[in-house]
């Protein structure tokens, strides 16, 4: 939950920073994003009008075996 709050705070100041933190964490050993973190960064990307990034994130989610696009906004 702290990570999501940090992403939201970063977005208010510098939207690109929130996206950079999200991408940096993907590279950390032993860390994987949850549906909730993906939904948060999708919201941030949409607010920043980064629609190419939104498309890329949805494609990335569909490639993750544990991410199912049958939840939340994808219903």
The count of domains is 1
Number of helices: 4
Mean pLDDT: 76
Secondary-structure element sequence? Answer: HHHH
Strand content: under 5%
Summing up helix and strand content along with how strands pair, one would put the structural category as mainly alpha
Sheet bearing the most strands, described? none
Q: What form results from the Cα inertia axes?
A: globular
- Portion of residues within helices: 55-70%
> How many individual β-strands?
0
Show unreliable segments: none
User: Distance between termini?
Assistant: 24 Å
Written overview of the protein:
The chain has 75 residues and is mainly α. It has one domain. The protein has four helices and no strands. Helix 1 packs antiparallel against helix 2. The chain is globular and about 30 Å long.
Task: Please supply descriptive tags for the structure shown above.
single chain; 75 residues; mainly alpha; 4 helices; 0% strand; globular
List the helices and strands and how they pair.
Elements: H1 2-13, H2 15-26, H3 35-47, H4 51-63
Helix pairs in contact: 1-2, 1-3, 2-3, 3-4
In short:
It is built from four helices and no strands. With 75 residues, it is mostly helical. Keywords: Repeat.
């Amino acid at each position: 939950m702290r990570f999501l709050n940090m992403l939201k705070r970063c977005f208010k100041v510098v939207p690109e920073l929130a996206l950079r933190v999200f991408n940096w964490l993907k590279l950390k050993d032993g860390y994987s994003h949850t549906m909730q973190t993906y939904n948060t960064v999708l919201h941030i990307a949409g607010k920043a009008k980064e629609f190419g990034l939104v498309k890329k994130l949805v494609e990335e989610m569909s490639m993750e075996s544990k991410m199912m696009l049958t939840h939340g906004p994808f219903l």
